[in-house]
Amino acid sequence: MDKFRLPSEISEEEWPSPSTFIEEAKASVKEAEDKGIVLRIMGGMAIYLHSQEHKHLWKKLGRLGKKVFTDIDFVSYGKFRGQLLSFFKNRGFMINQRMLYYYGKHRQIYYGEKIPMVEIFYDKLQMNHTIDYKKRLGVDSPTVPLAELLLQKIQMVRMNEKDIKDTIVLVRAHEIGKDDKERINRASIGARLLSDWGFYYTATTNLQKIANSLSNYVVLGEEDIRVVKGRINELLNYLEEEPKGMKWKSRALLGTKKKWYNEVDEWDVISSPSHGSTEKEK
Question: For 184-214, how does the pLDDT look when each residue is reduced to its tens digit (9 = 90+)?
């Protein structure tokens, strides 16, 4: 391989099938586990793996197109950083040295022939808002817990169409609950949002927008809309009713007059596809 290529630079004819991405992701987690390394899948692929009974929704929403997966997103603990360098090299990947120099402590970007790109985040996902995975990666496997999957999507100040569709499928497939047993753990979400007004504002604004936009997706049935809207409202009501600390309340007084989120640079959105459409798929 002569040079690093972004997913956008690879033609559809060369593009791996969704099953190729999934097989590589699951095999990587299993091999890492055998070596004593904690590695978990994040993002849209993790939502897909967790929501097989609603796989038809992905198809209806146009989520399972040719480039349904643009890369594989993993998270691990920082103590495994050195081991994973050789781990992915042995799996046929090359590290991007430029990205290693800039982001190596918190994030590594690999590329390969079979899978165009693999990204590994360490300890935290730091985008518009920060999701700390401390003590949470052992809760589920081969993916991160459902609460973190939802937080990953709704932490973005500007959600794209792909992420909205992912959120709809995730919420349709899982109840809001008090634990992580195939439920979206409201307490885990509350622990992040109720101590950070900015994150709370972004997340609840996104959830409300999604709930209000469901009727625009003509492929959703009445039951889909009822369930998704009901679960979003259940989570929003829980977050609204839970007590907030003085720090949260003080920051809330400033509102959006002061920037409440972190800016992300071009490499933080490296894998984001262009916006899609809410119109009926042809």
Answer: 999 999 999 999 999 999 999 999 999 999 9
Q: Please enumerate in sequence order all residues whose Cβ is within 8 A of that of 198, keeping only pairs 6 or more positions apart, or say none.
A: 129, 251, 260, 261
Quick: pLDDT tens for 207-259.
999 999 999 999 999 999 999 999 999 999 999 999 999 999 999 999 999 99
Residue type, 12: E
CA dist 235 to 22, 69, 119, 178, 203, Å?
A: 30, 28, 30, 11, 11
Q: Per DSSP, what are the bridge partners of residue 132?
A: 124
Residues 180-183: contacts with CB under 8 Å, at least 24 apart? 180/139, 180/140, 180/145, 180/146, 180/147, 182/50, 182/146, 183/146
Cα 175 from Cα 37, distance rounded (Å): 30
